[in-house]
């Protein structure tokens, strides 16, 4: 897809609000040839990048007694790889509309070979699971989830968290144009590709909003949005020195968020929800008010706005609905915000005084607020709701077909120990690659059923060889965080993954080997030219595994031929061997970084990646462990600088000694140091630290 290049943005502390960007082409074709440069006015996001996000995205479809033909059209517009979550609050009385909706989704899923979760907002089992998980704010006096748009959206966020998806989008089900529905999802995926922060939101501006009231007519924006936008922009202007009109999507029903942002926001009930999302971001993360979540503050929050090509065509529901249900709550969350000064409040009062039916009502009602969904204990919710999945998942039983292990949710106060370990120099001897002195410790871990996750620069083939020899069945992280390989049926609950490789479901985090090789070739050529033209740089010899034969790799690494062959089967990194003086080596490393690649040094070789990160991979895998096991406590075992991000991420970092009986120096929070080089140190870590911890 082609979209306008960056528009002007407003910055409020840690929050960036981007101006509206127009989509120029909904299908930009295959990636351009390298010599064809895009115009500076245009940015292209290729189909593969969009597809990668769609596989990790759930689309929430709220419905309440809508036309079923229109609903069928909406389903047909959702991209195939997105998980559909239908939240219905339809009638179940004389005509069971919910049953009809469920039948339509079931038939659609069978025909199109896809999955959906379909629930009723008043489902008592869902309400019970939410109550058990400690989130009563979503429930009414009858113990069921309250009726309301916001409550349905939050339920959708909870089910997205349960499904393991990374993004959640919202699309109304009263849209007459399936092509517009498809375009909204593409906007979401494109926006997340453009965002720099993991805490991001994409809000869609309809180019036109026709109404079906007698003759069809096209209006540029909705009436409520115009008013809400005006007052949001005035509030933002009041915090700076200049006027702004940056907000154009104050009431955007079609919008999406990263789940990491969605689960942290405070929400307003009813139709205040979309405006309150913006206000919550400003209140919680801009820095104007005290910030409690420092992690989000460091990364920042982005709000991206995009304009559609398709119009949004839906049935008109009348002016009273717009004023009482939408406009008044939207302005109320601005008015009662701690960010609103007297000038903001006065403008809202004057606005409402000029609206027929509200001019004699001096009170602007408080909107009920709902705390962030992350307040809920997701593991408890999952444990309760799992037995009801066959009633909620369509086609029947499809999602739970992967479930092979019983729930092992720890009781309150307990935790599951998860061990992450490096291989070379930690579990394996740095000289012989032997693990023999660690066998007793490995048996103890197996007896205790404690997951042992390899987290190494080694390839999938190399790690699988050791896992098979040792009988280890747990997930593993390859090529310094390039990918996570999870055995099929290992986790009892479903999660998003990128591809299937044999018996593994693979979550890909790194750049492809082909792309790394292409960029690396250019970087090395530039470095060699600079070295040749330098009078102070010495000679240098550079080679990489991709340029070497199996025999060459074997001689250089002391691996046997089988191991050397597996070491060459790289997917997300390249191993580079550099021989030269310090000045020449630094020139090479600088050019690698200048071309957008990263490197790490493992003691003998440099691992070049597109930014692989052991710590990031561990965070992803930790979320799956928590979802399936409840509370966890993580240990990390390593020996070198290459293990820093792993050791920094785990709860209990442990360093084993390197040859010479010394520990590598690195700054970590409360590290433990064990005596013993490689597998000897690994064994002591297991017996002296990991197993005794209660």
From TrEMBL:
Main EC class the enzyme belongs to: hydrolase
Signal peptide: none
GO molecular function terms listed in the Swiss-Prot or TrEMBL record: magnesium ion binding; mannosyl-3-phosphoglycerate phosphatase activity; mannosyl-3-phosphoglycerate synthase activity
Keyword Metal-binding in annotation: yes
Taxonomy, superkingdom: Bacteria
Biological process per Gene Ontology, one example term: mannosylglycerate biosynthetic process
Key word Magnesium present: yes
InterPro entries: HAD-like_sf, HAD-SF-IIB-MPGP, HAD-SF_hydro_IIB, HAD_sf, MPG_Pase_thermophiles, Nucleotide-diphossugar_trans, Osmo_MPG_synth
Alphabetical keyword list: Glycosyltransferase, Hydrolase, Magnesium, Metal-binding, Transferase
Gene Ontology annotations for the cellular component aspect, listed alphabetically: cytosol
EC nos: 3.1.3.70
SUPFAM superfamilies the record matches: HAD-like (SSF56784)
Pfam family for this entry, one: Hydrolase_3
Protein known as: Mannosyl-3-phosphoglycerate phosphatase
Organism: Dehalococcoides mccartyi
